[in-house]
Design goal:
about 75% helix
Length: about 130
């Protein structure tokens, strides 16, 4: 058996990452990111909304900050998933795609909540309705 050439050894995509190393990195990162999602939802948005005590400006600022953090997390997870795909780490890619789906769902839910709470008030359509 001939040893691989020098350029072939340097390329990360030339061979698959060992499954033990892959799982050892994928599981803690998956747990860390899902815990961050939950804690940010509870503490980042929930406590700030509760501390606002009805001040709509602070509630809006907390909601927009939460949306921004979700977008940053979604981008970061997609970048790490792309790097894991380059290194051919199958379980890491699967774990990060699951976190991507989860954070994307959270982002859609938060944006829907923001959109429904800031919808324009319905206007009077009929002139005879005495609006």
């Amino acid at each position: 058996m001939t040893p691989p050439s020098a350029p072939e050894r340097r390329r990360p995509w030339s061979r698959r990452t060992r499954w033990g190393v892959d799982l050892a990195l994928a599981i803690p990162l998956f747990l860390l990111k899902t815990a961050w999602l939950g804690l940010d939802w509870m503490f980042g948005l929930g406590l700030e909304t509760g501390a606002a005590q009805g001040d709509t400006d602070r509630i809006d600022a907390a909601g927009l900050a939460h949306i921004g953090r979700m977008q940053v997390l979604l981008i970061a997870v997609l970048i790490v998933a792309s790097l894991a795909e380059i290194f051919r780490a199958r379980w890491m890619v699967i774990a990060h795609l699951l976190v991507t789906l989860l954070s994307g769902g959270v982002l859609v839910a938060v944006q829907h909540q923001w959109g429904s709470s800031h919808a324009p008030s319905p206007r009077c359509i009929r002139y005879s309705a005495h609006c």
